[in-house]
Design a protein that fits this description.
By secondary structure, the chain is an alpha/beta fold. About 55% of the residues lie in helices and about 10% in strands.
Length: about 600
């Protein structure tokens, strides 16, 4: 009897259908189905060899005919090779992942999607007149920018030419708004000023379609105010637009852009910038020399978001933890070493500060921040200068009720009574030497934050004396700075999320003028139609008329409410642009602005005309 074929022939059409699935997922599915079939084929071949053929081979071998034994030995070897080949084929099929066939299907899929997208776009344009590229140029969309100088690149000689006292921030911003005024409107309608010892920054908004002229106008304004040429000022200015501007503000308020990483003072300065920007006009303000802010809705919201971001970063990270200045590190060292070195708690030690300069003031601020009731004596050649440091508003605001002063002639007596001595003078020679500390009845901690040293290094050899220098403090500073650096990435991840949220809100504001126009159009229709029905409504009482009026208003509000809420949806920026363009095109709307409108016939700014 004829032996049936183990593998039936497959028509070419069927083979093409199995090897050419409709999409990429079917390729994987076909392979997955193919592998078990190969395994089944392997099993059948193995059974065939071990079952029926084995008995046939055994019978033929018993015939003792060498020719037949040789033939069937070859058949046996051939079947073994077939089993091995099928096993290899199964392994090869399992290893298929990104074959040439898969790549071809991917390219076919991309080409098909591109073609369908083009067909859909052409169909929409032919039916509605709407062109997708126009959505990227909506005339009501506003953009935010920041232009300024900072400690990173601009020397103090340049920064001081643009520095603005806080009392003049609003006047300065209003001057820029007027400088950028043209016959067609305000190119820079919103401005806020942030000017500190380390930075000068202008946060401003402009229509998105006029962002490049707006930036150039601001640069020209700064050149005029500083008296510097483009070549002199340009290399030191930085300019950020859109998400970069928002990100910059959030990093500034979080302390990531500060001279001292994570310092908190900048957050208070951003708060002041926001307060000035939203300051309202009031009666008598001009007489007092005050000017209302020019922040506007976009810039005010951005500054407020920056303040919130600064708080979030400091709450959710350790960016502000640990001392990163020498003076604060000296106090931190004292707090850590008081118990092991002096056998006293840090809050109970007597402190002597030698010197009454800037470093001594910072020491007092750091010390009183830790312990407002600390017992401190400030020793200085000029007692009046020492008292002036204690009377400083910031120092007094943190503590000092147990603080006193002493002259330089009483220094050794004060040192003898003190547990901790900080040296911060401008002396070029040591003011404390080993012989000054011999025979002390109690231990003392010496902390020298001066360069050159005010305390001789050999003082550490004296019994009961612990001597620390600037190098010891730098280790504390560097360790804390390293810890803060590890928190920077956490802070930046938080900032990225908030930038996206603000950008989405900002984009939604482009719909506001069209929504206002839509409301006006609807109200006009409502009044027109009500007037047409005047004769029929003439017999109604006043309360009935009010009820009809209220009813029609509510109908319009409820009809348009889904549109209002739709503009607040969380979606891609491009989708938001398309939605605003569709709103404008569908109702044939012209934007309706509620502020910063120019009267008829207003001429351009004299500064721009010059």
């Amino acid at each position: 009897a004829a032996v049936p074929a183990v593998v039936p022939a497959v028509p070419a059409e069927a083979a093409d259908a199995s090897l050419a699935p409709q999409d990429l997922d079917n390729v994987e599915e076909s392979i997955a189905q193919f592998v078990p079939k190969i395994s089944a084929l392997q099993s059948q071949a193995a059974l065939l060899r071990s079952g029926e053929l084995r008995s046939v081979l055994a019978t033929m071998k018993e015939l003792r005919k060498s020719e037949l034994r040789g033939v069937f030995s070859e058949v046996d070897q051939l079947l073994c090779a077939l089993v091995d080949a099928i096993d290899g084929l199964r392994d090869s099929a399992l290893s298929i992942r990104k074959s040439e066939l898969r790549q071809q299907f991917e390219q076919m899929d991309r080409d098909a999607k591109a073609w369908v997208g083009k067909v859909e776009k052409d169909a929409v344009e032919s039916l509605t007149g709407y062109r997708a590229e126009k959505a990227a140029a909506i005339d009501t969309m506003m953009e935010v920018h920041v232009v300024g100088l900072s400690h990173h690149k601009a020397p103090v000689e340049v920064r001081e030419k643009l520095a603005v006292p806080e009392a003049d921030w609003n006047a300065y911003s209003q001057e820029l708004v007027e400088f950028a005024r043209t016959s067609t409107g305000y190119i820079v309608p919103e401005v806020a000023v942030l000017s500190t010892c380390n930075r000068f920054e202008l946060y401003f908004s402009s229509p998105e379609l006029k962002k490049f002229p707006a930036i150039e106008i601001v640069h020209a304004f700064l050149r005029q105010k500083s008296g510097l040429s483009r070549e002199e000022l340009g290399p030191f200015l930085f300019t950020h637009t859109g998400e970069e501007a928002i990100n910059h503000l959030f990093e500034v308020s979080s302390g990531l852009d500060s001279l001292v990483l994570g310092e908190a003072q900048i957050l208070a300065q951003v708060k002041a910038c926001h307060e000035h920007a939203i300051e309202k006009f009031r009666e008598g303000a001009l007489a007092e020399g005050k000017v209302h802010g020019a922040g506007g809705k976009i810039i005010a919201k951005m500054l407020n978001a920056g303040i919130r971001m600064g708080k979030v970063v400091r709450t959710k990270t350790k960016i502000g933890k640990g001392s990163v200045s020498v003076s604060s590190a000296a106090v931190e060292l004292m707090m850590a070493k008081a118990l092991p070195d002096l056998r006293k708690y840090a809050n109970n030690v007597n402190v002597c500060i030698v010197g009454a300069g800037k470093m001594s003031r910072l020491l007092l601020l750091a010390l009183f921040s830790k312990n407002p009731d600390a017992k401190v004596t400030v020793v200085n050649r000029s007692v009046d200068k020492a008292q002036a440091v204690l009377d400083d508003d910031m120092v007094k605001g943190r503590g000092g009720k147990n603080a006193k002063v002493a002259g330089l002639d009483a220094m050794m007596d004060v040192v003898a009574e003190s547990d901790v001595v900080f040296a911060a003078t401008a002396s070029k020679e040591p003011i404390l030497n080993p012989e000054d500390l011999q025979g002390r009845a109690k231990g003392v901690m010496l902390v020298d934050i001066s360069v050159p040293r005010n305390i001789a290094a050999s003082c550490s050899e004296v019994d009961k004396v612990k001597n620390y220098s600037v190098d010891d403090l730098k280790k504390v500073v560097q360790a804390n700075a390293d810890k803060r650096q590890s928190e920077v990435l956490k802070a930046k991840r938080l900032i990225v999320d908030e930038v996206k949220k603000f950008k989405l809100w900002q984009a939604s504001q482009g719909a506001v003028p069209y929504l206002a126009a839509l409301q006006t159009m609807a109200e006009n229709i409502r009044r027109t139609e009500t007037a047409k029905m005047e004769l029929k409504l003439r017999g109604l009482h006043e309360k009935e008329r009010e009820a009809v009026d209220k009813l029609t208003r509510h109908i319009i509000d409820n009809l348009f409410r889904p549109i209002y809420y739709s503009m607040k949806d969380s979606e891609e920026l491009e989708a938001k642009r398309n939605k605003i363009w569709a709103l404008k095109n569908m109702f044939r709307l012209e934007p309706e602005y509620k502020r910063r409108l120019l009267p008829e016939g207003s001429g351009p700014s004299p500064q721009l005309s010059a």
